[in-house]
Amino acid sequence: MSWWLWILFGIALLVVEMLTPGGLFALFFGVGALATAFVSLLGASGVVQWLAFTLLSIVLLATLRHPLQEKLRGRPGAPIDTLVG
Known about the structure:
- The protein is an all-alpha fold.
- The chain has 3 helices and no strands.
- Helix 1 (about 5-20) packs antiparallel against helix 2 (about 25-40) and helix 2 runs antiparallel to helix 3 (about 45-75).
- It is elongated, with a radius of gyration of 18 Å.
């Protein structure tokens, strides 16, 4: 696959992530596709590109999804019952 197709695929997945609620799944596949565009520029074959896309996406998903969800969720605030007034 051409490098520019990987970039379009990555951007499309990032747009899907922005349009869907919660989850944080398409984000990592979009980043994996953008990284695979670089692998494609280096002249890798189609099989290597798909393998790189799959491995990068799964590793990113497995390692970064939970920390990002925790960071986005933030710290829990004071319970409503403790607020004065």
